[in-house]
Amino acid sequence: MEVPSKTFTREEVAKHNTEDSVWFVIDTVVYDVSEFLDAHPGGEAVLRQVAGTDATSAFYNLHRHEVLLKYADLAIGTIEGEKQSVVYTKPGELSPVPYAEPLWLTPPFKSPYFKDSHRRLQRAMREFTDKYIGPEAIEHERTGEYVSQQLIERMSAAGVLHMRMGPGKHLQGKELLGGAVKPEEFDYFHDMIMAQEAVRPACRGFQDGNMAGMVIGLTCILNFCKDPAMKKRITDEVFSGQKKICLAITEAFAGSDVAGLRTTAKKTPDGKHYIVNGTKKWITNGVFSDYFVTGVNTGKGLSVLLIERGEGVETKPIKTSYSPAAGTTFITFDNVKVPVENLLGEENKGIYVILSNFNHERWTMACATIRYMRLVVEESLKWAHQRLVFGKRLIDQPVIRQKLAKMIALCESHQSWLETITYQMCHMPYSEQSKHLGGPIGLLKMSCTRAAHEIADEAVQIWGGRGLTQTGMGRVIENFNRTYKFDAILGGAEEVLGDLGVRQAMKNMPKAML
Ligand code: HEM
């Protein structure tokens, strides 16, 4: 935060304790709030009570540091010869709080998985998130606005959109976050870093609104579009931010049970088009998308069509418990004419197109959930050291330490499991991954969201009313507690994924009696 260079003595500040002039000090910075008294959300009286004094602990007991950044123009100078004692992390910096970073980023821990390019990418993406994604995420999560074109274009220019699609040919020739990682060295650990760093603004609705539809929808174009010119046109348009895309599978009739889809696609007598009729529900980014990668029933099975927004396509926002910034949508297709060239994969074999997507989608969701759990651990550790209750810090109460121990253990164990699976993704041929990793990834995601449930529950108990309040100190906890269920439902419900994991194990059981 830029503070005017003027300096004052504490005696000078003390004089500004009058009807017309209210000054105080927060961490050696002098604030003149005389014109802010009426506007202060916590009221005028509390500010007058600390007029002329050092209000550092009073302030930090009630506000997040980001409040000072928002109202930076109230700062008029600093106290002569004094140094700030509150630790602020600058954009891109690691947190000094224990367990706030995964062990591979925590000195002196070592990890066999991460190379220099991973560390460079982590630093670059942390800075990018802190500077560009975070401020917009916090604002839009509150207002419900969709992701801005400016941010999309910035992510496009930096290769962030490209990297979020994981390793592959689509990275070729692109400079990735100023050269932090080369396209050919980008692996699933880099992918994991991208997914985890982008979560740190702690705005679950905006997180999905920020092009999650592309992450799950564009894969089908990259892997299953048969016409090279069409594939190039669509990927160029989406990667440049000109057009938006989403994945439209779920219906009111069929959620995780994709075989039950009722949206139909019937071929015209000349065989040149499909006529699509039906509805889709809970489609992330649908309201602002131009392309819909859509699951349809083609009579003898499921197929996947690329449908462009046009005649017969209507989208309406759905209000859910997270922010409208996610762009959650109800879609109706009313006699929509789709060229047969828009078929992705084979007719009636769309299940393979959809299944090929699931592993990466579920794994990305596990990355994000675990990172969000870690943020809750960090916030709770900070709060427990700062908050005084019955004359003691919260952290001095054994019951609070028990809760934190459980939260930390759940977070660390899931990160380790994630890294083990990510290593397999880096080294197992893609063709074998669906056979061997579908089950473990399903179980990982299921277990992550069960852990998130426990962590949300314990965190709210630590935070009290603040954990239930959208603004102020408990913002991260409130958002997590209200939204972790999205990860337990989207991309395959916990129960379905648990069952998938066990059924995959059943297939691999030896035939003989054991
Ligand atoms: C430059 C200094 C300050 C600014 C810019 C400021 C700003 C704010 C804002 C934006 C809120 C709304 C909640 C949030 O977003 O956190 C708030 C709430 C509040 N503030 Fe301040 N504040 C300042 C100093 C203080 C001080 C020194 C005190 C106490 C001595 C105080 C007491 C309160 C109280 C009691 C609330 C309501 C908290 C709650 O509902 O949990 N504020 N303030």
Automatic annotation (TrEMBL):
One of its GO terms (biological process) is fatty acid beta-oxidation using acyl-CoA dehydrogenase. Coiled coil: none annotated. Keywords: FAD, Flavoprotein, Heme, Iron, Metal-binding, Oxidoreductase. It comes from the Eukaryota. One of its GO terms (molecular function) is flavin adenine dinucleotide binding. Pfam families: Acyl-CoA_dh_1, Acyl-CoA_dh_M, Acyl-CoA_dh_N, Cyt-b5. The keyword Metal-binding applies. PANTHER family: ACYL-COA DEHYDROGENASE FAMILY PROTEIN (AFU_ORTHOLOGUE AFUA_6G10880)-RELATED, MEDIUM-CHAIN SPECIFIC ACYL-COA DEHYDROGENASE, MITOCHONDRIAL-RELATED. Belongs to the acyl-CoA dehydrogenase family. This is Acyl-CoA dehydrogenase. It comes from Diplogelasinospora grovesii.
